[in-house]
Amino acid sequence: MSEDDDRSPPSDSVTTTDSCFSKTQTCTSGSTSGSGPSSVPEFQAPYPDQVLENVLENVLCFLTSRRDRNAASLVCRSWYRVEALTRSELFIGNCYALSPRRATSRFTRIRSVTLKGKPRFADFNLMPPTWGAYFAPWVSAMAKAYPWLEKLHLKRMTVTDDDLALLAESFSGFKELVLVCCDGFGTSGLAYVASKCRQLRVLDLIESEVSDDEVDWISCFPESEMCLESLIFDCVDCPINFDALERLVARSPSLRKLRLNRSVSIGQLHRLMVRAPQLTHLGTGSFRPSEDVAHGEQEPDYVSAFAACESLVCLSGFREIVPDYLPAIYPVCANLTSLNLSYANITAEQLRPIIRNCHKLQILWVLDSICDEGLQAVAATCKELHELRVFPIDACEDSEGPVSEVGLQAISEGCRKLQSILYFCQRMTNAAVIAMSKNCPDLVVFRLCIMGRHRPDHVTGEPMDEGFGAIVMNCKNLTRLAVSGLLTDRAFSYIGRYGKTVRTLSVAFAGDSDMGLNYVLEGCPRLQKLEIRDSPFGDAALLSGLHHYYNMRFLWMSSCKLTSGGCQQIARALPRLVVEVINDEADEDMGNFVDKLYMYRSLEGPRDDAPKVVSIL
Amino acid sequence: MAFQRDGDLNLEATELRLGPPGTTEEPEKQTHPTTTAKCNKRSLPDMNEESAGSRTNNSNVSNEKKHDRTSPPTKAQVVGWPPIRSYRKNCLQAKKMEAEAAGSGIYVKVSMDGAPYLRKIDLKVYKDYPELLKALEDMFKFKVGEYSEREGYNGSEFAPTYEDKDGDWMLVGDVPWDMFMNSCKRLRIMKGSEARGLSCAV
C-alpha cells in the first residue's frame, strides 16, 4: 500500500553536500612532505591516515541509516570520501535537488536508489501534466555509473517505456523495481523488464498509471524457474493473459506477495491461491465471478483456498466485490495484520463478521460505506490497530456523509495504539478530535479531511481550532498533520506553539491572515514539507520564513495571496532555492496573484526541462 | 411545472401516497386526488423528490464563502478537492456508473388503491409483463384479469397502471416491455370504476 514517506530526516544528502562544500577544513591525508634530507628511497609504510581510511571503510559499511551517514560525512574530508565509497543506498527526496551527475560522481558504489519527483498535490491535478520529474536523465546516468544497480524505488516520477528498456538492458543484476504513483509508461515497458531482468525478485506497481499497449507482458517472464518474490500490479488496468500468470505463479516458489488487478475473477483467484498457498500478501483482484460463469455451476471452495494460506497476513483488492463472497476470507482473519477494503462498497453488516475476527489487525483501509456503525465494530475488536484510513465513496462536498465524529470517537476509544489516521468525513466536532488527541497519544500522522470547505464543528458551530490544537498539544510524536474545516489563525498559533515535531503540514481553505502562516514558519523548526492551497496568506507571510526554507524539502502554495513581487524577493534572497511559479493561462481572474508557487532547495539552480507554463524566478 | 427544489419544502403534503397511520414518515394521510383519467392522461402534481440527485442540490446552502464565482445547479466542483487521487476516484466512480448504467435496480413505487402500504419493486428482476404481473398479484393479493390490447384488463376490478416519463398514466402492457422499463416511474394498481374507465379508453 502506498504511503507518503514520513521518515525523511531533517538533513538529506543535499544539505550534506551543501555544507560540505562550504567547509574548508582538510584532514591530513598522506602528505608527501619533501622535507626529507636524504634521498635514499625508503620503504614507504602506508600513511597512518590511509590505514585510518581502510579501517573507516570497514566500519562505515555497517552504517545503514542515511541520517547517520550524512552526519559521518561531515566530520572531515576523509570521512566524507570513505562514506561516499561505502554508501550503497541512495535516497533523493526531490529529484531536482541535485543532478544525476552530481549524485553519481559523489557516490560510486550504489546498489539501491530511491527517487521522488512531483509534490503530492500533483496527485490531485493541481500540477500541469508536463511539469517534469522525468526519470530519463537519471536512468542514463545510472546506466553508466551503476552497472551493478539492484534496486530502484520511484515515486511520482514520469517514466517512459524507453527508460524501462534502458533499465532492463543496463543492469544485469537488477532485482527490485517499485513504482509508486508514476506515469508515462505502459505494458510495453513492463514487457522489457519482465523479459530482460533475469534476477528480478520484486516488481511492484502501486497506484501508477499504466497505459494498455496491448502487450502480453506476463508472458514475457522467462520460462525457467523464477526467483520472483513480489508481483504487484493491481493498478494495471488492462486484461492479462491469465494462463500465463498461472504458469508464472506455479514456477515461482519464492512468491510471497501477489496483488492482482481487477481483470482477475474470483474463480481465477482460486486457481492461483491453490498454486501459491505460501503467500503472505494477497490482492484479490475483482473478487467477483467472471461474466461467463453459469448460475448453479459448481463453484470452487474458496474458504478452503483461504484456509490453506496459513501465512497470509495482508489482504487487499476486492476491486468489484460481490459481498456474498466476502465470508470466504474468514479463515485468515485471525492472522491478518493488514486489510485493505478501500475499494469494497460494503455495509457495516457485511463488515462485522469479518472484522470481529481480526484481533491482530494493525492496518485497516476502508470505505465510509461501513458508516459509523462499522467503525464501532472496528473499535470493538482491533485493539492493535496502528493505522486507519477511511476513504469516501462519494468524494464531493455535499454527499451524505456516512461517517462522522461518532466513528472517530469510537475509534479513539477502542484503538488506543493508533499511530496514523486518514479520515474523510462531512461533519466533525472538536470534542471528538480532542478525545482522539487524549486517547491516542501515540499518533504520528493525523490527517482529517472534512470535505465541506470551511465547515465548522457541526454541533457547536465553532471553528475546528480547538480540535487540531489539542492534537498538536497532546500528541508528542506527531510528525504529519493535515487540517481541514473552518480554521482561524488561532489553529495555526497552536500548531506553531506545540507542533515542534511536525515535519509535514497540509493546509487547505484555512486561516484568516498572514499571521497564520507566520506562526507555523516561526514555530515549527522541523517543518520540511509544507503544502497550502486556497488560504489567505500573502507575501509578508512568505517572507517570514526566509530563515527556514533551506531546511525544507519544499513549499507549495496555490491560490493564496502571493504576488510575483513577493516570490521574486524570495528568489533573490535565497539563491539556492528554486522558485517556480505556475500560472494557469486559463485563469485570468487571478489578477496580480500568483496561481501556484512551488519552491525547493537545490544545488543545481533552475532546471532546463520545465514546460512553458512554469516560470523559474 | 416549476417548483423549488429545496430539500425541506413540503412537497410530500401534495404527494399521492398512502401510508400507515401514526408513522412519523408520513404524518398525514393523503386523500386521493379525484381527477379522473381521461383516456390515458392524468394530471397530477409533478413529484420528483425521489430522484437520486435531490440530495446533492442542497449545495447552495453550504457553499457560502467560496472562491469560485459561479455555482451551477449541480455541485460546484473545485479542482483537486476533496484530495482523493484521481486513480481512486475513477475506480469508485466507474463502479457507480457501471452500476447505474447496468441498471442494478430500476426501483419504482407501487401503490394499490385501498392498500395502506406502498411497496417498492425492482423492475430489472422481471423479464416480461407476465412475470411482473404475477409478482404484483402475489404482493398485493389480487387478480389482474386477462389483458387484451383492445379491452384492457378483463375479468377483474383491478387494472395495473403506470406513470411514464411524461407524467401520463398508462395501462401496463400497452407498450413493449423494454419501452415500459425505460419509461415507467411508478406503478399504481387502480380499482373500481377508474380501472374500468382506463381499460376502455384504448
Automatic annotation (TrEMBL), chain A:
Renumbered residue ranges of the record's region Disordered: 1-44
GO cellular component entries: nucleus; SCF ubiquitin ligase complex
Biological processes per GO annotation: auxin-activated signaling pathway; SCF-dependent proteasomal ubiquitin-dependent protein catabolic process
Cell compartment(s), UniProt: Nucleus
Annotated metabolic or biological route of this protein: Protein modification; protein ubiquitination
Low complexity: bias regions: 10-39
Pfam families in the cross-refs: F-box_5, Transp_inhibit
Record's keyword terms, sorted: Auxin signaling pathway, Nucleus, Ubl conjugation pathway
Residues annotated as domain COI1 F-box: 49-88
Domain Transport inhibitor response: 109-154
Keyword Hydrolase: no
Assembly and binders: Part of a SCF (SKP1-cullin-F-box) protein ligase complex. May interact with auxin and auxin-responsive proteins.
Protein known as: F-box domain-containing protein
Originating organism: Hevea brasiliensis (Para rubber tree)
TrEMBL record, chain B:
InterPro entries in the cross-refs: AUX/IAA_dom (IPR033389), AUX_IAA (IPR003311), PB1-like (IPR053793)
Entry keyword annotation includes Nucleus: yes
Entries under Gene3D superfamilies matching the protein: Phosphatidylinositol 3-kinase Catalytic Subunit, Chain A, domain 1 (3.10.20.90)
Bias-annotated ranges (Polar residues): 51-62
Keywords noted in UniProt: Auxin signaling pathway, Nucleus, Repressor, Transcription, Transcription regulation
Main location: nucleus
Annotated compartments: Nucleus
Keyword Coiled coil: no
Region Disordered, residue ranges: 1-79
Span of domain PB1: 105-192
Top-level taxon in the UniProt lineage: Eukaryota
Assembly and binders: Homodimers and heterodimers.
PANTHER family from the UniProt entry: AUXIN-RESPONSIVE PROTEIN, AUXIN-RESPONSIVE PROTEIN IAA17
Job of this protein: Aux/IAA proteins are short-lived transcriptional factors that function as repressors of early auxin response genes at low auxin concentrations. Repression is thought to result from the interaction with auxin response factors (ARFs), proteins that bind to the auxin-responsive promoter element (AuxRE). Formation of heterodimers with ARF proteins may alter their ability to modulate early auxin response genes expression.
Family: Belongs to the Aux/IAA family.
Protein name: Auxin-responsive protein
Species name: Hevea brasiliensis (Para rubber tree)
Source lineage: Eukaryota, Viridiplantae, Streptophyta, Embryophyta, Tracheophyta
